[in-house]
Amino acid sequence: MADLGDVRTGRHCAFALHAHLVFVTKYRRRVFSDQHLKRMEDIMRTVCADFDTELVEFNGEDNHVHLLVNFPPKVALAKLVNSLKGVSSRRLRQEFPDLGRHYYRANRLWSASYFAGSVGGAPLGVLLQYIEQQNRPA
């Protein structure tokens, strides 16, 4: 696993942005096998690369997946999530037609909602204290 303290640089910025994403299947159905999860990781790595984003870690169970992504500030996290969910759903349903039996009404693999949490850096309390202690101009 990559060090969460790694700082990447862009043309006009330095950044270390990480997000923990969780996607849950529609109706929280238990549909994924190890084979599905392995293929899904490959698909999601490709989508992340297209966004100049690194998929640092991936894991999941039969009804949800966890991703740790390192992303540049130019990437809108909501757009990345939309692409990750859309592409993985479409490709998995194409490559594994057996998944379709779980979703005969809603032609979607994922629930519309997702979890996104920021990761890394100093705890909020430490950061608040640091900012509060900065010298103010007189």
TrEMBL record:
One function term, GO molecular function aspect: transposase activity
InterPro entries (UniProt xref): Transposase_17, Transposase_17_sf
Domain Transposase IS200-like stretches: 14-134
BP GO annotations: DNA transposition
NCBIfam families from the UniProt entry: transpos_IS200
Protein name: IS200/IS605 family transposase
Source organism of this protein record: Micromonospora inaquosa
Lineage, uppermost ranks: Bacteria, Bacillati, Actinomycetota, Actinomycetes, Micromonosporales
Encoding gene (name): tnpA
